[in-house]
Amino acid sequence: MENNATTKQNRRRPQQQKQKQKQKRVAKRAVAKAGYKPMQPQFYLSSCAQLYLHALVNPFKPLPTSEMPCIPDFITLPSNKVQCTVRGTMTLGTGGFGFVLLDPFAMINNNNSTSGSNTNYPVKYTTGTYVNTEVNHVPVGGSLPTGLSVASSNSPYSSAALPLTLGDVRLVGGGLRIRYSGSEIYRGGSATLYRSQGNTSVPGGASISDLLTSQLTETAPIKRQWLQVNFQPDESIQVEYASFNATWNSISSGSSHYSLLIAVQAPIISGGFAQQTYDFEANTYFEVLGQNVALTPSHCDPVGTGAIRTALSQARLSTAPPEQQERTLLSSIMNTAWQTMSGAVSTVGSAALQFAGNKALQAGVRAVARAAPLALAL
Prior knowledge:
Strand order of the largest sheet: 4-3-2-9-6-7
Number of strands: 10
CATH topology of the domain at 84-282: Jelly Rolls
Oligomer: single chain
Number of helices: 7
CATH architecture of the domain at 84-282: Sandwich
Radius of gyration: 32 Å
Order of helices and strands: HHEEEEHEEHEEHEEHH
Strand content: 15-25%
């Protein structure tokens, strides 16, 4: 009887195996028919992080949404988001040299002054009477150098209201750009784009040769397309909230941060320098805390923010179109963020496996401990 049962069981095994193989084939055909594809790892930059990148890399392009950019870090306090702009015309001086200089932090103040040892206007630019061939922007005795003019922003906040109304301010992003607007017959020369390390002020009397010693300098031929240089935070205080008088330039105190510069040196053309005019524009975004201000929600995306700052720290100053720079940085950000996330997932997975292994080992030790007295008794 036992031999007969074993024989029947052996006969059924091939049939069972065939049935399982058939079920697998049917399942595979169903999956293929449904158009299933293996899941690929994907990472998306949040909308708030995209706006932050936009403010840093392409600040002159209209915002893609009605929402204003913020810094999406862990400080998610509701804030007043402000856009501040300056526009004007720069002219080369008598030596064929001219420049536009921006203190992006001072753009929050719309009521500036040249009193005292500092000039608090966010933008300084040359006129046709400028006589130097260096970046001579430091005031002497409270007066600006000959041929240098200044401009204020359209910020809704004045220097009188800032200390009283506002609690803290921080700069989200911004930049400076110029384009040739004079007669085509006089167009020529080259532009030097410069951002100072640490966003400190450009030294007074700096020449083009001095600027070119920095890695944060780029040159480009003069053209009618925009050339721009953007603000980039490279110190922790530059992404934190601070009081207006402590970090941002003001009439009474504070430090200047004329850190963004575009200088032009043109070839010698008799009588042509006065015709070489340039449109300039500065644009910045701020977050403001304080009393009686319209507050809107702020967002948090630490992974996206970290990836943006990592990508920016590795990028060089470029004269490529801002849209191209934004796409290049976005690709770098995606790679950085995915590596960060995949590393975190791997770490969590390893920790989970180690935890499970430790639990199993502990359970085994307890079982052996319980069995030991029984074994000794036997």
